[in-house]
Amino acid sequence: MSEKTIQVNLSPERKPKPESNQLGFGKIFTDHMFVMDYTEGKGWHDPRVVPYQPLTLDPASMIFHYGQTVFEGLKAYLTNDNRILLFRPERNMQRLNRSNDRLCIPNIDEELALEALKKLILVDKEWIPTAEGTSLYIRPFIIATEPFLGVHASNSYQFIIILSPVGSYYKEGIQPVKILVESDYVRAVAGGTGEAKTAGNYASSLKAQEVASQKEYSQVLWLDGLEKKYIEEVGSMNVFFKIDGEVVTPALNGSILEGVTRNSVIHLLKHWGVPVSERKISMQEVYDAYKAGKLEEAFGTGTAAVISPVGEFFWKDEKLVINEGKTGEISKRLYQTITGIQNGTEQDPFDWVVEVHQEAVAK
Amino acid sequence: MSEKTIQVNLSPERKPKPESNQLGFGKIFTDHMFVMDYTEGKGWHDPRVVPYQPLTLDPASMIFHYGQTVFEGLKAYLTNDNRILLFRPERNMQRLNRSNDRLCIPNIDEELALEALKKLILVDKEWIPTAEGTSLYIRPFIIATEPFLGVHASNSYQFIIILSPVGSYYKEGIQPVKILVESDYVRAVAGGTGEAKTAGNYASSLKAQEVASQKEYSQVLWLDGLEKKYIEEVGSMNVFFKIDGEVVTPALNGSILEGVTRNSVIHLLKHWGVPVSERKISMQEVYDAYKAGKLEEAFGTGTAAVISPVGEFFWKDEKLVINEGKTGEISKRLYQTITGIQNGTEQDPFDWVVEVHQEAVAK
Question: Where is the stretch described as Disordered (chains A, B) (predicted)?
Fold first, then answer.
């Protein structure tokens, strides 16, 4: 048997499955998980699907001290005709390896990881929720496990995939959010880890998020770390503005995460003939467009919400109410098209979805 | 019995203790650890000394995904007359709480933490090595344990202290290191987490460290993230330069860690009447001083090495060899004085050391 054969060890017990209105996001986990080990000299080995279980790690494991870790997030959807679909999963695996490079973590075999993900989903396929807007959230992540208190790259790792059935992000239809433009805290800077999907980026964002919540804003809009002028991301999403008929999003610059939804939105807009550009854009430019009545829409893009329209920005003591606080036309069309492609109810002109074929799960 | 009483559960087994020449740094751990839990509503509770054991954590625990964690590092020393000394431990606990604030982690009771640390050391006092230059390294850390895949502050945490007997940092006496001035990667920026002792700062430093190692430099010197002109830190140490008789160190600016050794060095230099200033200092200024023959010494300060003299900087394709690559007078004097105060062989004019009194360890 090859080192690369994924072993499957089924759980003797099955947890009760929640009702679709009990799902929430990222709180409930399925019966199984995927695990693969890395040790120096031996490489990645022993890929296996095992019962969902706690990780048992030495308290000196480097993940607890030096944050050497990366993760991904994607979703599986069940179609009306009972097919399981993934949305551009190969891009998540490619990005996982780009994050690995930045964090000095050994690359994974992207094909094997994708196979592992499919096998795990098939084992837990009864956990994929079926109500509208629900899906199975997939969280691949890698952690440094060497028990050593010194700052260097770990000599051992675990690659793990866990699954969480998640509810509709919008309980009552797509809803615009209110965003605080952040002027004190910084998420990332060129030369840092902003374009990698790694824990530290999220840890550093908590404080700003807390301050925004106290002011009753649901997320923050991050400006660049150097001049605090140029727009980077919103919360943990990429951000788009429709100004005078053109859709603009910040160009990738080394500190912005390259979102899969971001890329899909750009593709779709081009396909539709909507002008779209990736470029540097300042908050002042957005403000000026607003004042001139030309800021038509703003929205965030990410795996969790897909499209998150922005109804209001708060910047320098001023409220910028966009499109009367309502969801714009482009936001709506993008949301319907992308979620439709994801759940199999819309045409998939770019071959984005990947079907998880339900033949023989290995014993 | 109070919620704050530290319970002690002794290990039935004791591991063999290593020879002093086998110690290394951060690889060997003692027989016990301290653990305390936090749950929302209940606060910090159940402080306990338990046998050293693996942590058992749900794979969805937030520490593995969003890096909400802080740590500290300090040492205990055994004196020739068998007393156990700590060096300014209250500053580590104060800094731990400052880091907690930045990372949205609930503050700990600093007195209780210090008591816990002392109790743990007394339980494992036979692990304090006695050979010259050796000590017991102490690693307090806090991790977010809520099993939840969403970016918010965790509702549960563990505060843990582990101990590691460590060897002399310098096997053959204090030795100057060679440092690469980093021009591509950035450690931290104002508004980020640079002044907090949190995992993500160390994760982001690994790549630059890897590049430096390939060029046979042992550490990197970090410049500011904005202009890449001003000096911040060296490796995971603070840095000092002696220029034309004056000792200069970068002023605390929000992205530099406030080192306990840094603070102690400044105190000692002032006490000795050596001119010392905390201010913004550019790499160009260091270079110009070098060219003018006025760069007399450079050294890093940190808990692990105490004082780490710099024998060479590499910047813009040029080697700056300092003091003929030898340890300077101030570096030597600081090293001898601070390590002497720490191990009880030198006068302690500032009441820096705290003795761990060996009366009654609770059952």
Answer: 1-22
In CATH terms, A177-342 corresponds, of 3.20.10.10, 3.30.300.20, 3.90.226.10, 3.40.350.10, to: 3.20.10.10
| pLDDT, block means (10 residues), chain B with 363 residues | 81 93 93 98 98 98 98 97 97 98 98 97 96 94 97 97 90 86 90 94 94 93 94 94 98 95 98 98 98 97 95 96 96 97 96 87 42
Q: In the CATH scheme, what is the code of domain B7-168? A: 3.30.470.10
Other residues' Cβ atoms within 10 Å of the Cβ of residue A229: 13
Query: Closest-CA residue in chain A for B150?
Result: A26
- Residues on chain A touching B156 (C-beta within 8 angstroms): none
Inter-chain CB proximity B199 and A202 less than 8 Å: no
Query: What confidence tens digit (pLDDT) does each residue in A12-32 have?
Result: 999 999 998 889 899 999 999
Sign of CA dihedral B211, B198, A101, A194: negative
Q: Enter the tokens of residue B207.
A: 């790549």
Residue to mutate among B50, B55, B75, B99, with most A CBs inside 10 A, is: B55
- Contact yes or no for B68 and A203 at CB 8 A: yes
Best residue in A53, A66, A224, A236 to probe B by mutation, most B CBs within 10 Å?
A: A66
Domain spans of chain A, in order of start: 7-168, 177-342
Q: Residue B231 is which amino acid?
A: I
> Quick one: tokens of B59?
């794979």
Dihedral sign computed on CA atoms, order B125, B130, B132, B134: negative
Residues in chain A within 8 Å Cβ distance of B187: 192
Q: Which amino acid is present at A324?
A: E
